[in-house]
Amino acid sequence: MATFDYATLKTDTVIPLLTKFGATFSIKRTEDTSLWVKSYSPTLMQTIWTNQDTLEVVTTQPIATEITYSATGVLSDYEDSVIDGTIIKRNDKKLLTADISVIPQINDIFVVNSIEYKYVDHVTISPANIDVLYTIQLRI
């Protein structure tokens, strides 16, 4: 039985179409400093901060920094038939993309056509465990 090459579909069809008909957008993410725990190191004889996620240890207090990622996608309105006023609201937008370098998360800000949108949710189309397309729900 033949298998379908979804990776080639993504690189040869999906990304070129999104590039041709889409526009560049940005994802602004503020690094979370709540994962850092302050403690005293008797070995170093000074205060340290430990990242509970990565276990990185630093000797200066971490500060929130904004990181910006760029990608290409197509922004559109939701069809009236899927707008329920609760999960999908009237002014929500749908962003289709395939070449993002990070998985969207709560508190991400998407800048599309100079307008800032809040990230709400996303669906990943992943046949054969290959992320081919992301449908990202955005809200003003």
Give a verbal description of the structure.
With 140 residues, the chain is mainly β. It has a single domain, classed as Thrombin, subunit H. The protein is 11% helix and 44% strand. The chain is built from 1 helix and 9 strands, in the order H-E-E-E-E-E-E-E-E-E. The chain has one helix at residues 6-21; strands at residues 23-30, 36-41, 46-51, 57-58, 66-77, 93-97, 109-112, 115-125, 133-139. Strands 1-5-6-9-8-7 form a 6-stranded antiparallel barrel. Strands 2-3-4 form a 3-stranded antiparallel sheet, with no helix packed on it. The longest helix has 16 residues, at 6-21. The radius of gyration is 20 Å and the shape is extended.
Order of helices and strands: HEEEEEEEEE
* Total strand segments: 9
Strand order of the largest sheet: 1-5-6-9-8-7
Nearest-integer average pLDDT: 94
Helix-and-strand structural type: mainly beta
Q: First CA to last CA: what distance?
A: 47 Å
In the CATH hierarchy, what is the architecture at level 2?
A: Beta Barrel
Q: Percentage of helical residues? A: 10-25%
Point out poorly predicted stretches: none
CATH class annotation: Mainly Beta
Short overview:
Helix content is 11%, strand content 44%. The protein is mainly beta and 140 residues long.
